[in-house]
Specification:
By secondary structure, the protein is an alpha/beta fold. It is built from 17 helices and 14 strands. The longest helix has 23 residues. The protein starts with 8 loop residues before the first helix and ends in a 6-residue tail after the last strand.
């Protein structure tokens, strides 16, 4: 994969947002491509970047903060959280002028994880998450955004897949993509063994360095235990009581550790949708790994073994497949302004839809993910029930499967191959 030929979907979003706010914050996991994005943005503004990952630059910045922040029309600071006091200096500058486009910051730790006193930028900062690569970006076709086309013109998109799928991909092909994930550096590795070593190093660094920057926890072995437990139940409801019981961790510790893993962007919560009212909704969010390459590595699988049909592997691949598809949709939604919120829906009776795209204006698009190549009538039950509840809010329902070809059913429900997300 050649970085020089790779254009990120989020670049266009960042170029737009930097002119809408005094401070633009690019936040996301380490090695996800934030620094590359910063370079592209700074080049367009003919500005240099202050890289606080460099200890010498960070030390110099602490001693000469005010002069550094006035050296350019737009000040770019990479890994700003290394010198938290920079936010106080930024606040001083913003008190003098609220001009848009003054600062672009990037960080590998969530802004919410910083001390409360450093967060006094409300109303003057926009946060933009930089996520792992989409399949369209990997294929160097970043503008082929299925979600955008679906929101703008659902009927025309569905018709593309009515007779045959764009490719002849099957479940095993999708699982191999699931194991590889979307981290640029992981994609550059020459083989599965090298990729596994990269992910193992990434996980180790995240626990031993990034987590320590957020919290002074000492029991890192407990964090590793928790990570392996979460990998086994990835894409499940977040139940801290069960997690603490199965790992032997104190419930408060388990909850705190999960929050820490979210703050370094290794995990993310998918909230329950409340767009369609019903008294029987569950309240727990679902917990997904931010990239399936991490979860696959924790399960000691790779693209050569994830297609095995032994019982242990099969029990894990359904959840991995779901997270792969969920993450792909979330990444595509990032550049679709009409999507206000991405959630999921589940009733206490067990009816569930993996994704609800809540659109501006009140409409919803429901998406269900199935790893099977053929669907049964029962696979449509949750979608039909949700459509009845949603009424006029229901724009479209899509069931993504691992087979070939699409079928348009009555009442704006369609089944499509998973590869429609990137073809």
């Amino acid at each position: 994969m050649n970085d020089k030929l790779l254009r990120r979907n989020v670049l266009d979003v960042a170029l737009e947002r930097v002119n809408e706010t005094p401070v633009l914050l690019l936040q996301g996991a380490r090695s996800v491509g934030k620094s590359t994005l910063m370079r592209e943005l700074s080049d367009k503004r003919n500005a240099r970047i202050l890289d606080f990952d460099d200890e010498a630059i960070a030390e110099h910045a602490e001693q000469n903060m005010q002069s550094l922040l006035t050296s350019a029309k737009t000040v770019f600071i990479d890994e700003y959280q290394k010198v938290p006091s920079v936010l106080n200096a930024v606040k001083v500058k913003l008190n003098q002028s609220s001009r848009f486009g003054q600062f672009v910051l990037s960080g590998s730790i969530s802004f919410d994880a910083l001390p409360h006193k450093t967060q006094a930028l409300t109303g003057r900062i926009q946060r933009l998450n930089v996520l792992p690569l989409t399949q369209t970006e990997i294929n160097k076709k970043p503008h082929r955004n299925f979600i955008k086309r679906l929101v703008d013109s659902p009927q025309s998109v569905i018709e593309t897949y009515m007779n045959k799928g764009v490719t002849s991909a099957n479940r095993n092909d999708y699982l191999k993509k699931t194991a590889i994930g979307g981290f640029p550096m992981a994609l550059k590795q020459n083989n599965s063994s090298a990729r596994t070593r990269w992910f193992e190093s990434y996980i180790d660094y995240s626990i031993n360095r990034d987590v320590r920057e957020v919290s002074r926890i000492r029991q890192l072995s407990e964090m590793e235990l928790l990570l392996h437990r979460l990998a086994k139940t990835n894409a499940s409801l977040l139940n801290v009581a069960n997690i603490s019981k199965e790992t032997g961790l104190n419930p408060h510790s388990a909850r705190d550790y999960i929050l820490l893993l979210e703050k370094i962007f290794m995990l993310h919560r998918l909230p329950v949708s409340t767009a369609v009212a019903t008294k029987r909704l569950v309240k727990q969010p679902k917990l997904h790994f931010a990239d399936t390459g991490i979860a696959t590595t924790l399960l000691e699988l790779d693209e050569t073994t994830i297609t095995n049909i032994d019982a242990t592997t099969l029990s894990a691949t359904g959840h991995l497949y779901e997270t792969f598809a969920v993450n792909e949709v979330i990444r595509l939604c990032q550049s679709v302004d009409k999507v206000r919120k991405v959630t999921y829906w589940r009733t206490r009776d067990g009816l569930e839809l993996d994704l609800i795209l809540e659109l501006r204006g009140g409409k919803v698009i429901a998406i269900e993910i199935k790893s099977a190549e053929k669907l049964t009538n029962a696979d449509y039950t949750p979608m039909r029930y949700y459509q009845k509840l949603a009424g006029d809010k229901f724009l479209y329902g899509i069931i993504l499967h691992s087979g070939v070809g699409g079928i348009l059913h009555k009442n704006n429900i369609a089944s499509l191959p998973l590869d429609c997300l990137w073809h």
